[in-house]
Write a structure and sequence with these properties.
Elements (H helix, E strand, L loop, with lengths): L1 H20 L11 H13 L9 H28 L4 H12 L2 H12 L3 H25 L4 H4 L7 H34 L8 H10 L3 H16 L1 H4 L5 H7 L12 H11 L3 H4 L3 H42 L12 H14 L2 H12 L4 H23 L11 H34 L8 H10 L3 H28 L11
Helix pairs in contact: 1-15, 2-10, 2-17, 3-6, 3-8, 4-6, 4-21, 5-6, 6-8, 9-10, 15-18, 15-19, 15-20, 15-21, 16-18, 17-18, 18-19, 19-21, 20-21
Amino acid sequence: MWRSASVRTSLAFVALALACLFVADLSISAHDPWGELGRLFSGLIRPDFTQIDYLGEALLRTLAFAFVGVGLGATAGLLLALVFGSKIVRTFCAFIRAIHELFWALIFLQFFGLHPLTGVLAIAIPYAGVFGKVYAEILEETDPLPHTTLPFGTGSVVALVYTRFSQAWPHLVTYTAYRLECGIRSSAVLGFVGMPTLGFYLESAFAQGHYSVVGALLLLFYVLIGTLRLWARPKLIPLYLVAAPFLLGSGLPIRWQNVTRFFTEDIVPAPLRNGEGLEGLWVWLAELFSTQALPGIWNTLVLTQIALVLTGILTLLLYPLASRHFTNRLTGPIGHTVLVVLRSTPEYLLAFILLQLWGPSMLPAVIALAVHNSGIIGHLIGRRTNEITLRPDAPRGVERYGYELTPRIYGPFLAFLFYRWEIIMRETAILGILGIATLGFYVDSAIQEIRFDRAMVLILITALLNIGVDILARWLRARLRLRHTAQSEP
């Protein structure tokens, strides 16, 4: 029964995405898009490492922001997980993780400037919300039986450490390692708003047409992510965490009066600052919704729906690359490398590159979102198929794909896809900073115009939209009885 329900739900999502295609701007407007793409590939094939005298500093700053931000986020998330049963805590975590790192960075830039604190908090705050939720779920899934065997009078902290934490520790470590990889990607992307990480130098090289330098930076980024397990060993992590704060660099001194003014004046709606009262506030809000919020919400939803369905299609095509049922000793490492490259490329970074090549439209964003997320889910689903044992006379090739494996992993595939739905929505909104007319476009425009009150309302709308999609996705997973545990979260 659930299978037919899953198929009907899938067809409904595909039909909605097809309808969205008719109202989406998917044009290519660049003068010579394929020539530009060819020059980019030429730069990847012939990277120029000699001109990157700032490479060492860029790599160290990228790693420093990632380690400090993720470290603080994990610490705060663990504390939040211990009290996650509170509705207030759950709501707080949902809200802070619903706001993208770049939105947090844009907020902190207004009063901290290009101070290292801006980049650290931009990563730490949303990651604390994510860690709080996932850590709590991992702890909840542990076996409660050991707790009943403890001597009478055992303290709650000791009981927690020796029962739930001892069971959950491997899963906590595995998930934290995954979030560190995400933190490195987030740190690199912070360069696009001025922080001195890889993204800053990549944007500069692209603007100057130095594709060989772009190729070198991209290859180094892929090597950094691809070799993470080699250099980020558990015994070395404490050393990295101690050294990272000293590698963040320094910025201009923080002027705390700017912080006070931002919260007491800048984000207060203009009608209230000007004494126009509630009537003026309603007029102001109505104008903001009609001219910016509603168009931004519409474009965000349209782009998200197309990207979500394309992610699903690409995932079903890509998961055999990570499955032992379709690969051998030669093709297996190649497939693994392809998926590593796809999932290691931040959506924002790929969308930026494609926008430079194809011109402004929704198409670069759709491709970037689908490529990155299908790489993540394809890797996870491929690993899931490795747990399936086929009978000796099982068919091969297309029949094995269509009749043996895909039906068995379709439930987990939908569960992962619905989990990524809210994440795709977050990224869709933030891609507006690149010029695509999603909510992020209007947020960035308001900040450029020094209308922080408008920007904060639009960011709040973005957060509420993400929370709504997350609730809908969880409802669909429960209705379709899709198994999805915190320990396997992508």
